[in-house]
Amino acid sequence: MKLRIHRLAVAEIDHEVDYYESRSAGLGADLEDEIDAVLGTIFQFPRAAPQWKDRPDRRVAALDRFPFAIVYQIKGDETVVLAVAHTSRRPGYWSRRR
């Protein structure tokens, strides 16, 4: 199974890591570490996270310490991270990504 991160999800990660780092030194690195850990779990167990609405191909994995969820889609032998979305802002904005 391959893991690919959508270019807009990469931009979201970069933006949020920079934001948290600007708030407190080391906090951005903590966010990045947690994202990496969740991505590792997704890579190992892609079907472990709950489905998004009625889409069996899309799943949402929540971060523990930060208010974000990693939204991803399973396409054959590839898992595509569609978004790293804040849990309280703009729900479903990423739903048209592929």
Q: Provide the CATH top-level class.
A: Alpha Beta
What is the CA-CA span between the terminal residues?
A: 17 Å
What gyration radius follows from the Cα positions, in whole Å? 13 Å
Strand numbers in spatial order across the main sheet: 1-5-4-3-2
Molecular shape: globular
Total domain count: 1
What is the SS-derived class?
Answer: alpha+beta
Q: Strand count, sense and closure of the main sheet?
A: 5 strands, mixed
CATH superfamily: RelE-like
What is the CATH architecture term?
A: 2-Layer Sandwich
Order of helices and strands: EHHEEEE
Give the proportion of residues in helices.
25-40%
Individual helix count: 2
Report what the structure shows:
The protein has 98 residues and is of the alpha+beta class. The chain has a single domain (2-86), classed as RelE-like (YaeB-like fold, 2-Layer Sandwich), CATH 3.30.2310.20. It has helices at residues 7-23, 27-44; strands at residues 2-5, 51-52, 55-62, 68-75, 78-86. Strands 1-5-4-3-2 form a 5-stranded mixed sheet.
